[in-house]
Amino acid sequence: MDYFHYKNNELYCEETRVADLAAQYGTPLWIYSKRTLLHHLNQIQQAFAAVEPVICYSVKANSNLGILKVMNDAGSSFDVVSGGELYRVKQAGADTSKVVFAGVGKTDEEIRFALENNVLMFNVESEAELDAIANVAQSLGKVGPVALRLNPDIDAKTHAKTTTGKKGNKFGMDIERAEQLAEKVLADKRLSLRGIHMHLGSPILTTEPYAQAVVKAAEVVAKFRARGHDTRWINLGGGFGINYRKQEALPASAYASVIVPTVQKAECRLALEPGRFIVGNSGILVSQVIFTKREGGKLFVIQDAAMNDLVRPAMYDAFHRIWPVNATVPPPEDYEVEIAGCEPTDVVGPICESGDYLAKGRSLPPMQRGDLMCTFSAGAYGMAMSSNYNSRPKACEVLVDGTSHRLVRRRETYEDLVAHEVL
Ligand code: LLP
Questions:
Q1: What is the best residue among 40, 54, 58, 312 to mutate for testing ligand 1's pocket, by most ligand atoms within 8 Å of CB?
Q2: Dihedral angle at the C-alpha atoms of 247, 253, 259, 260, nearest 10 degrees?
Q3: CB 287 within 8 A of CB 304
Q4: Residue 196: which H helix or E strand, with range?
Q5: Does 281 sit in the ligand 1 pocket, CB within 6 Å?
Q6: Rounded Cα distance, 98 and 106, in Å
Q7: Is there a single domain that holds both residue 309 and residue 195?
Q8: Which parts of the chain have pLDDT scores under 70?
Q9: Is the CB of 171 inside a 6 Å radius of any atom of ligand 1?
Q10: pLDDT, tens digit, for every residue of 250-302?
């Protein structure tokens, strides 16, 4: 559930009219609903409460400071994958001793920065990384806390570019080597073994992959313990799916029902790294129609948001619901069926690439120059993956809380575009 809804044919974010925000802040415009963010975080906190998890909001999904602050104030911790993300969560006031640091290619500088900030643990993805952490820890007179990221060889059936837990992709270390890796950590006084980590892919709309993964994780923990190692943490990563098309997402309680009992039995602490589940349905992208045209037997709506703003359709063939901000008919429950009064439309941006589209052949009511349209479920991996391609300034971001709203990132200017360059 989210807090974007139509009232009297107009789209609202919580109690705020989206058209008013577009008039005030311009387009393209990212709008986030604080209530939706908190609703989703809270759902996870409650569903997993029995094992007192550390919920590490995955910063990569949306790293805006305003959002990180909302997460921090609501008791979330963070999953970071770079020194830059660690810097951001510090800016947002995070307690870095609950932060997990992931990623296949941590540099010595990043490892040092993380150790200086006493992160909870590194999710370690290679033996070489274990050595690097040990060396940097030694130079700082510290012990490096590590969780072994294991590749459980589970097919989470996500897009090829976002599946991670299958043998042969670049993430983690083969689960068969877990014990040998644990021995290596335990033989090294510069490291401490906190636990194991797995991330299966994203987005995952069934519980089955998690059910399999947690069992495998518990087996590994049992093996470590049998050898006398006190392994405490199971980190199952992120990946919980959201509503992109209709109400296809599972509640957090569904994932909890397959994860919690096994974690309890293993007597472990649980860490989770949800990104999309928290922020995905909490954000929309509002754009304005520049032109419409019919060519080659097709109707094109050319609007001012582009693949530099939201790359997901171009990159993953991702589906995002799109509907006018002022609509005489409410958005359809199901976009697969023919919708009365609608016509197949290509929603495209101004960028000079055929791949620059938000939707293809989408049933939409007639749109005209100047109309506002909304792309839903855009809060995760939207702004976070945006770029300045075609020298387009990045859009601004607004956080709504009931009837109030504030800018959490101003719109970039042409000066910003060249600010780091030298003639
Ligand atoms: N933990 C790890 C180790 C990850 O690699 C990821 C996402 C997450 C947590 C958070 O996953 P989430 O809960 O947000 O699904 N850009 C793609 C998604 C890439 C996901 C990368 N890793 C997209 O737009 O669909």
A1: 58
A2: 180
A3: yes
A4: strand 191-197
A5: no
A6: 18
A7: no
A8: none
A9: no
A10: 999 999 999 999 999 999 999 999 999 999 999 999 999 999 999 999 999 99
Tally of structural domains, the chain: 2
Query: Does 312 share its domain with 260?
Result: no
Q: Kindly state whether residue 11 falls inside one of the protein's structural domains.
A: yes
Residue matched to tokens 């052949």: 361
**By the 8 A CB rule, do 227 and 182 touch?**
yes
The closest-lying atom of ligand 1 relative to the alpha carbon of residue 280 is 14
Closest-CA residue to 382 (of 280, 288, 287, 302): 280
Residues spanned by the domain of 90: 63-274
- 92/115 Cα distance (integer angstroms): 19
- Find out whether 123 and 197 touch, Cβ atoms under 8 Å: yes
33: which residues sit within 8 A by CB, 6+ positions away?
2, 3, 4, 13, 14, 282, 283, 400
Looking at the structure, do residues 168 and 305 belong to the same domain, yes or no? no
The residue annotated as part of the active site, out of 13, 56, 352, 374, is: 352
Residues 144-164: tens digit of each pLDDT: 999 999 999 998 877 777 777
The tokens for 92 are: 């947002």
What pLDDT score does 159 carry? 77
| CB of residue 104 inside a 6 A radius of ligand 1 | no
Residue identifier of the C-alpha nearest atom 23 of ligand 1: 381
Decide whether any atom of ligand 1 lies within 6 Å of the 274 Cβ.
yes
Question: Is 352 tagged catalytic?
Answer: yes
Look at the block and give the residue holding tokens 């599946």: 163
In a domain, 334, yes or no: yes
Contacts of residues 216-219 at CB distance under 8 Å and 24 or more positions apart, as own/partner, are: 216/150, 216/152, 216/154, 216/175, 217/150, 217/152, 217/262, 217/266, 218/262, 218/263, 218/265, 218/266, 218/268
Is the CB of 203 inside a 6 Å radius of any atom of ligand 1?
yes
Peptide bond into 251 cis (omega under 30): no
Beta-carbon neighbour count of residue 79 at 10 Å? 31
* Residue 231 to residue 226: CA distance in whole angstroms: 10
Q: How far apart, in whole angstroms, are the C-alpha atoms of residue 84 and residue 89?
A: 9
Question: pTM of the entire structure?
Answer: 0.97
- Biggest CA pair distance of the chain: 71
